[in-house]
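Input/output pair, single chain:
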Amino acid sequence: MEKKIKVVFAIPTLSAGGAERVMSYVAQNLDKEKMEATLLVIGGEKEAAYPVEGIKVIFLEKEKVRESFLEIINFLYRYKPNLVISAIDHLNTMMALISLFFPNIKFVGRETLVKSVTQSTKKKFFINTNNIQKYLLDGIICQSKDMKIDMIENFDFPKDKLTTIHNPVNEKFNLKTPHASDSTIKFITVGRLSKNKGHLRILNALAKFNKPYFYTIIGKGKYKDEIVDRAKKLGVFNNIQFIEFTDKIPHHLQNNDIFLHGSFVEGFPNSMIESCAVGTPVVSFDAPGGINEIIETGVNGYIAKNEDEFLHAIYEVVSKQFLSPEKIRKSVVDKYSADQILDDYERFIEKIVTN
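Output:
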């Protein structure tokens, strides 16, 4: 019997978020005959928003990633994995530095956003973290083609270190059942309440929408006050409900008519894929980060370049009676099914460990 490949998936926290959901899902569902997965969480167990079963989970109970440096080294020395896959940029950088102590372990970072957009708004530090990752990590997993192209063209990452693996659609997202038409159109957005997520430009467009509607915003964050203030100024606050956190995302997606996406940059938006997976169409602003890979115009939604186009796209979906749920679901399940994405991860793991 061949020895199992020991893989550690490292994440800053297990709180609600796309990277946390995908990393924990992949770790739990790799082929257990071939691989032994462990989830290493820098943060605390109390923050965990996702149940993890069938694999070992270790919480370091640290508030900040940088506080875990010695604990991670100690853990890797004792556990001796074949491969470490980390996510989120600052943890990827620290893992790249830790790799210097473990020449027999492969280290891979999973990138979560398009770097050239996100880093342009951040302070420049005296250490170039991109170079640390570029030279010390054995590989980088990109979520989208946009992300891979950006890392090659803008940061000179070598092509042979970059692999694109999209996010999976798992089995819990079932097709919505037809419901009686309602004169009130129901919109939904799922995501962190931050400036980058573009809630304000969605509200600007909805303020000009001349049909009855109700808008559900699921997510929490420090930007909520700004969103509430804008909604009140535009006179649309009474059309909105806020839900901070729920474990019934599929239910909410199924019971709304159109998913609205306002982000200025993405990695590969899980909530957009999940909306399509239940058959709810998407109207999205154009932005780098896989949106143009997910949206098939007129099949599962529309992409708009500005607020006027966004509003027009909403009317377009409404006029076509919200598109076909079956075709919407097929558009993402055919490309991003969990089985297919897990196969991609397993092939990648086997290849990088044996090289």
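The CA atoms of residues 29 and 105 lie 22 Å apart. The radius of gyration is 21 Å.
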